[in-house]
Amino acid sequence: MLSFIGGTGPEGLGLAFRFLLAGEDVIIGSRSAERAAAAADKLKEMLASSPSGDATPSGTAQGMENEQAVKAGDDIIITVPFGGQADILALLRDAIGDKLVVDTVVPVKFAKGKISAIPVEEGSAAEQAQRVLPEATVISAFQNLSAETLMDPHEAVDCSVIVCGNDLEAKKKVMGLAEKIEGIRAIDGGGLANSRYVEDLTTLLLNINRIYKAHSSIQITGL
Question: Which of these, 94, 46, 86, lies nearest to 70 by C-alpha position?
């Protein structure tokens, strides 16, 4: 069971949708139970409108308040905006405990028509999450995926996902989870400190997408 914190936003919904298609059960967490339930209903509508329809077995979706969601989930996926990450995770620290946490957060700001990276004291959003959740195992992944692509039932995903973390077994688990999504190849990106480079790459992709009006992603070749 995968619990999404910040799952009512486009990135969380899109990623949850792709895991549903892969047969995973998901919980959408929100500060509001009503918003969480509405997001779960939206996911069910997206599944019904996907090309596979009801022909392919898929996972189930339900909505809960954040604390209930992290308690009920086996693994936690963080898809909140960077500005709220530290405060939200601090509130959920005890409920999360020593669970596996997958951080997808990118420290980026949009101001005056410009997209730029936000400096992070810890080095990266993922390292900030690990500081706030000292008992949890934090792995970073999925930062470079386009929310628009993920949410479109008719658009194929075709990209690499770089996975960074200090716990080898946890990293392998997340790499396997990533490759359950059709079209994704997981790449071992080394330790958690390398998350800063992946997060910065996302800022570059956002700028490229703005210039070309596209939903670009990345492919790691030669491996």
Answer: 94
